[in-house]
Amino acid sequence: MALSEKNKMDVPQHIAIIMDGNGRWAKQRGLPRTAGHKAGSETFRRIADYCRTIGVKYLTVYAFSTENWKRSEEEISGLMVLLERYLVEALQDMEKNGVRFRFFGDLSRLSPKLRRLCEEASSRSSAYSEVQVNFCLNYGGRDEIVRAAMDFARDVAAGKRSADSLTEADFENYLDSAGVPDPELVIRPSGEQRTSNFLNWQSAYSELVFMDVLWPDFKPEDLDRAIEEFYRRSRRFGGA
Ligand code: FPP
Prior knowledge:
It is a single chain. This protein is α/β, with parallel strands linked by helices. The chain has one domain: Decaprenyl diphosphate synthase-like (Undecaprenyl pyrophosphate synthetase). The protein contains eight helices and six strands; from the N terminus they run βααβααβαβααββα. The chain has helices at 22-28, 33-54, 73-92, 94-97, 112-124, 141-157, 168-172, 220-232; strands spanning 14-18, 58-65, 99-104, 131-139, 185-188, 207-210. A six-stranded parallel β-sheet has the order 3-4-2-1-5-6, with helices on both faces. Helix 1 packs across helix 2 (33-54), helix 2 (33-54) packs parallel to helix 3 and helix 3 packs parallel to helix 5. It is globular. Bound molecules: farnesyl diphosphate (FPP).
């Protein structure tokens, strides 16, 4: 039975995806890398819709990492245009779709236009609660932890907090993901088997599912397979 026909209780509430393999997909077809990202952005749209259909509450995607600035100017600007285009559309359809948007990462390095779109999407959708999409943009898991540590240090210096009483739960409130439950499932397509600085803190207990399919070819059935794999594994959180 397709997951879409199953009870909504049967899916993880938070799925995170490293959308990898766009470049190889393009190369296989003799196309520029930006064509791979464009196909990848279409896959994102389909998978985000599918997640909503099957009842996934949070979807977090790695759209641009702190390391991605090393790519060519053409590739970077191609990616930024795709993101802008998506957010313009999302803002137009906001009331109809009711999706809440959040953005993880250091947005200060993005163009003023993209930053404004991110801010508008997150503020205008902040009241929606059924489905939430978290875009990781200029995001690195280590960078997120360092920025959180700096914010904490500033609060200590301002006398708002004591340096001796920090708990893991308190520290989470300084992360970009504050208030979002950890992903139960992290998926990386494209055959690479590492997490590449994605959600380092939040994925401490996540099931990691690596798949051979390239992201532009990723289908709802591949998401079903990843979820089925997730349920096959026993999840004990370090307990017996
Ligand atoms: C990794 O594949 C992918 C990225 C660096 C960018 C991911 C972005 C998108 C899928 C589009 C974003 C837009 C929207 C609207 C979500 P790669 O280029 O490293 O692939 P490769 O390893 O095969 O070279």
